[in-house]
Amino acid sequence: YFDSSAQAIKVRKPPTPTSWSDDGVRAEAFQDGDGSEEKPYQIATPAELGYMDYLINNDWNNYKNKHYKLTADIDLSGNLWMPIGSSGAFMGTFDGGNFTITNMQIQLDGDDATDRFAGLFGRVYNGTVKNVTVGTGSKVAANYTGGTFPIGYGGVVGDAYGASTIENCHSSASVNAAFTNDSGYGCVGGIVGYLEKGTVKNCSNSGTITVDGISSYAGGVVGYNSNTEGKVGNCYNTGNIEGKKDWSYYGGVAGANNGTIENCYSCGILILPNSKEMSAGGLVGDNADFDGGKA
Fold first, then answer.
1. What are the φ and ψ backbone dihedral angles of 148, each rounded to 5 degrees?
2. By C-alpha distance, which of 209, 202, 199, 71 is closest to 124?
């Protein structure tokens, strides 16, 4: 607006978007439970899920080995979503109760450590995420400008490592990722972006995946199954995968695989640049990328 008394033009900055974990947005307690396996924290509203998000991202080490359970479908429309475990890692057990989370909107643009991993969960370490669907209206949009790698983006989990288990999880979220620094290891998957170790089983993806970055890994279920101890089983993909750059790895189930992939399939379409400088396949882009991958 124009301030006539100061004879200067002042520009109002747009308000910073709020997330469900912000002060005044999140709940201040769970619906019920004490976090034990017998009495998990119960979550019935987006504000309560935001409260869980806040606790993990601000005091993750004190909330490891805790148990959480959804008791209703969750609609995250109206606010952005900050991935659980984007600071530190999620080290507990999350049971989605076969409910669906809709309208999850993640928008990342920068070079912070919290921009490196995204999904409903950012990083999962020795944790379990099971029985949840990321559904209609959900989107992960990331533009990473930093130089620290690897990077992981997925509909459900960005990065799973240690003895983590991702089980009976499904996603129709679109995952769009761009990497402006071409150092490599940008990993994007429908369910898990970067599977360092652990197990992904009985999962499916129908969301579209778009990747723009050299030396990227993109797969319908897992972007990169990087370790011989990584296992993907009984999973499928029906979403399309579009790669923008060469020198990358694209696969219907996994972009590249050093672990084990069993009883999986994909009927999604690979839309790739016209280049010979890449690895691409209907199931796996590159099997045994470095070690002894089996598919």
1. -100, 125
2. 199
